[in-house]
Structure formats: structure tokens, C-alpha cells
Design goal:
Blueprint: H1 6-45, H2 48-76, H3 78-81, H4 84-118, H5 125-154, E1 159-161, E2 167-169, H6 173-177, H7 182-211, H8 216-250, H9 252-259, E3 271-278, E4 283-290, H10 293-299, H11 320-349, H12 357-365, H13 369-385, E5 388-390, E6 394-395, H14 405-436
Antiparallel strand pairs: 1-2, 3-4, 5-6
Helix pairs in contact: 1-2, 1-5, 1-7, 1-13, 1-14, 2-8, 2-14, 4-5, 5-7, 7-8, 7-12, 7-13, 8-9, 8-11, 9-11, 9-13, 11-13
Protein name: Cytochrome ubiquinol oxidase subunit I
Membrane topology: Multi-pass membrane protein
Organism: Tsuneonella aeria
């Protein structure tokens, strides 16, 4: 075991908090877009089923969004507490980018979230749909700026280094924002978020189909989710390959660790499927490999030479074992997603999408797979960047605050205990909502007893129907009885 000094503890703390945090944006980014699609379909078709699904997932989105915001705020404080040197030197570049995220994405989401959650009975259909679209757009813009910051740390461009060692923006901010790895990382991450949401929705639909194969809400969820999986998973695999080629160009040591290539291969490198990396011996023990396949994938030529970690100084190499296995977890889950997507496509063609229990069980098992894949992907990205904070320019050991190990250990322990208790309860509540399922006439947040009330001006009181619901236009609570569950 390595010595638990302040630097290692600070790295563990940031890894824990950011992994915990990213679970929620990975879900809310895709779920916001799914809500936008559901409300758009309801407005176009007037089918009650889409409104029920919208209101069901809206409650889950509210909880996930809140937990994502809280965990993200806590995480950002670590830039000042544990990584003050990094913040001081890189602040002139990354500070404005993170401020843009707050000024654009966060304010946009916060401004329209209240209308989205509580405004369906208080504003027009068009305005409410516009609010939903703005929230979905805000989640994407948030991902845009945060991934721009991370990508700049991976492939820094457009900067100047001052006499005091600070990184200063160059003449063009566009060179900083659109650094070489940013477009690939943005598309790969956002697509991963969409797939994460698709498999959660598909898992919930599968759960209720196993209980009642005639459940129309479950059928709609499952059909939409599996359609997304069948279409988007192949796209994600292609995007991931392009991202890998970009990484090979700009961060070759990371790809060497991912592939387990300790030695250079001048006449074509094998693809190591599995094995046990040994950094001390500079070998992968018990390797199961395909000759020259790595050169074929990375260079599109089976005989193309590939450099190994023997060309990189030992002090500049990433931890091979972690990167090697996290990459395989991510790729393995991606292939499993592709298999489920193709299986569902076959079932759809054969007319058995809702009557194939084995497929439903497989989809249920795969429900959390997106979260595992995105965390594995981020481990590959961040651990593969080591020992650098700003790749090739600033080491992680140079970035940490001058703290003692007991101080960092105490805050890490507090984070683990509090996160497990608070966010564990939140996740349990979300799972409880999912297990309850969707019902015709599903209530939304505005129907809850403690929902906001009108407090400004003189507003006429609602006309109550026999069950105490407002008489409103078709498709909202108190809707016309002509609308059946099927629309």
C-alpha cells in the first residue's frame, strides 16, 4: 500500500466527490432531454400517456438535479482547500470558463426550473414547454463549459506563462475553449449521458413489464429507451474510437497504459484483451491477446509500429493497472449495451418487444450500467493523465495545498459519512419512486401539498372539481374526460 500522505489523500477525496457528483449530471443531462421529448409528444398528440410519463420522470429529475447541484458545490471548494497552488497558477484560464458555466448554464436552469416543476397549471402550454427546453439546453451548456475546462487541462492550448508561473490566456479565448480534445470529449460525454438515461428508463420499463406485460406506460418507456440504445450505442462506439485516436495523438502515454503496452512494437502491436499488468516487471502477465489488432485499431494498419511505455520516463507514466482495467470495464459495458440494443431491435422486428421476459430481465440488469461506464471512463481519463494536473506542464504534486495528512483525512472521512447518508437517502427515494411506477393522471410536483402558491397580486382562486383538482385546459390536471390513457 502506498503511504497515505496529504497529496494522495487529497487525490482520493477529489476522486470520491467528483465520482459521486458526476452520477447525477450523467443522469440529469439525458433526463432533461427525455422530458423535453415527452412534453413535445404530448403537445403534438394530446396523448395522456406522454403527460403521465412526463410528470413521473419530472419528480425524479427534480431530486437528481438537486443532489447534483449540492454535490457539485461541495466539490468546487476543494480547489481552494486542497488544490490552492493549482487554483493560483491556472485560475486566470479556468476561472473565467467556470464562471461562464454559472452565468449561462446555471442561471438558465435555475431561472426556468421553477416554471418547469410548478408552472404547468399556471402558465400556458407553450411557455411551459419552452421552460422545459431551456432547462434541457442549460444542462448541455453546463456540460459544455465544464468539459472545456477539463479538456484544456488534458490538452492545454492558447495560453502564455507569466514570470510568476501563472497560466494566462493568450490573444484568443477560442483556442482555450476549443482545445484539441474538447470536441471529442464533449460529444463522447454527452452521448454517454443520453445512454445512461436510456438504460435507466429502459430498466424501469422492464421492471414494470415483468410485473404486468400489458402496462402501457411501461411499454412506452421500454420502447423509447431500447430505440435510443439501438441507435445511439453504435454512434457512441464510433465517437469513442475517434476520441481514442485523438488521445493517441496528444496523450500517447495514456493510450499505452490503456492498451498495456509496456514495450514498443515496431512491426504491429497486439490487442491485449485481458491480463495482469505489472509495472515493476514492465509486462502483462497471463495476457490474452490478438496479434497486431491494436495497430489495426489505432493506426488502421496491422503492421504499423506503436511506441510503448519504454519510451516514457518512469516518473512520467500513469498507473497502468488502474487505467488498463477501467478502460476494459468501460468498453465491456459499451459492448453489452450494443448487444442489448441489437437484441431489442430483433425483438421489435419480430413483434416480441413487450413479450420477451428474458430481454426484460437483461435490460433490468443493465439499468445501472451507464453509471458504471461513465465512472470507469472518467477514471481512465483522469488517472491516465497522471502525474500531470495540466498535461505536460504542471505536475499533480506541484498543485496541492501545503496541508498535513490528518487534516485532509478528517475532511475525507466527513465527506464519506455525509455523502453516504444524505445522497444514499436521495438515491433510495428515487428508487422508491421508480418502483411505484406511472399511473394514469400521474401527479406532478405542482400537485404536492407543499407546492408553491401564488403570492403576488390578486389572483382568482381556482374552480374546484369534485376531487379538488383545478378545471384546466385539456391535458393538465383536471383534464377533459375525453382523454383516455392511450390518448
Amino acid at each position: 500500500m502506498p503511504e497515505l500522505d496529504a497529496l494522495l489523500l487529497a487525490r482520493i477525496q477529489f476522486a470520491f466527490t467528483i465520482s459521486f457528483h458526476f452520477i447525477f449530471p450523467a443522469f440529469s443531462i439525458g433526463l432533461a432531454s427525455y422530458l423535453m421529448v415527452l412534453e413535445g409528444l404530448w403537445l403534438k398528440t394530446s396523448r395522456q400517456r406522454y403527460l403521465d410519463l412526463f410528470r413521473f420522470w419530472l419528480k425524479i429529475f427534480a431530486v437528481a438535479f438537486a443532489m447534483g447541484v449540492v454535490s457539485g458545490i461541495v466539490m468546487s471548494y476543494q480547489f481552494g482547500t486542497n488544490w490552492a497552488v493549482f487554483s493560483d497558477r491556472a485560475g486566470p484560464v479556468i476561472g473565467p470558463l467556470m464562471a461562464y458555466e454559472v452565468l449561462t448554464a446555471f442561471f438558465l436552469e435555475a431561472g426556468f426550473l421553477g416554471v418547469m416543476l410548478f408552472g404547468m397549471a399556471k402558465v400556458g402550454k407553450g411557455l411551459h414547454f419552452a421552460a422545459t427546453c431551456m432547462v434541457a439546453l442549460g444542462t448541455f451548456i453546463s456540460a459544455f463549459w465544464i468539459l472545456s475546462v477539463n479538456s484544456w487541462m488534458q490538452t492545454p492550448t492558447g495560453f502564455e506563462i507569466a514570470a510568476n508561473g501563472q497560466f494566462l490566456p493568450g490573444p484568443s479565448w477560442w483556442d482555450i475553449v476549443f482545445n484539441p480534445s474538447f470536441p471529442y470529449r464533449l460529444v463522447h460525454t454527452v452521448t454517454a449521458a443520453y445512454l445512461t438515461t436510456a438504460f435507466v428508463v429502459g430498466g424501469v420499463g422492464a421492471w414494470h413489464l415483468l410485473r404486468d406485460s400489458a402496462n402501457r406506460h411501461a411499454r412506452t418507456m421500454f420502447s423509447m429507451a431500447m430505440g435510443m440504445a439501438a441507435v445511439v450505442t453504435p454512434i457512441q462506439i464510433v465517437v469513442g474510437d475517434m476520441h481514442g485516436l485523438n488521445t493517441l495523438e496528444h496523450q500517447p502515454a495514456k493510450v499505452m497504459a490503456m492498451e498495456g503496452h509496456f514495450k514498443s512494437h515496431p512491426e504491429g502491436a497486439p490487442l491485449i484483451l485481458f491480463g495482469i499488468p505489472d509495472s515493476d516487471a514492465e509486462a502483462v502477465h497471463y495476457a490474452l491477446e490478438i496479434p497486431k489488432a491494436s495497430s489495426l485499431i489505432l493506426k488502421h494498419d496491422p503492421d504499423a509500429p506503436l511506441a510503448g511505455l519504454d519510451t516514457i520516463a518512469r516518473e512520467d507514466r500513469p498507473p497502468v493497472g488502474i487505467v488498463f482495467w477501467s478502460f476494459r470495464v468501460m468498453v465491456g459495458i459499451g459492448l453489452a449495451m450494443l448487444g442489448i440494443g441489437m437484441w431489442s431491435l430483433l425483438a421489435r422486428i419480430r413483434g416480441k418487444l413487450y413479450d420477451w421476459p428474458l430481454l426484460h430481465r437483461a435490460a433490468l440488469v443493465m439499468a445501472p450500467s451507464g453509471f458504471v461506464a461513465v465512472i470507469a471512463g472518467w477514471i481512465t481519463t483522469e488517472v491516465g493523465r497522471q502525474p500531470w494536473t495540466i498535461y505536460g506542464l504542471m505536475r499533480t504534486a506541484e498543485s496541492a495545498s501545503p496541508l498535513d495528512a490528518p487534516a485532509v483525512a478528517a475532511s475525507l472521512t466527513a465527506f464519506v459519512v455525509i455523502y453516504t447518508a444524505v445522497f444514499g437517502a436521495g438515491v433510495w427515494y428515487i428508487l422508491k419512486l421508480m418502483a411505484a411506477g406511472v399511473h394514469t393522471g400521474e401527479q406532478g410536483p405542482e400537485d404536492l401539498e407543499k407546492a408553491p402558491i401564488r403570492t403576488a397580486g390578486i389572483t382568482p382562486g381556482p374552480t374546484q372539481n369534485p376531487v379538488g383538482r383545478e378545471e384546466l385546459p385539456d391535458g393538465v390536471p383536471g383534464t377533459s374526460p375525453r382523454q383516455s390513457e392511450d390518448g
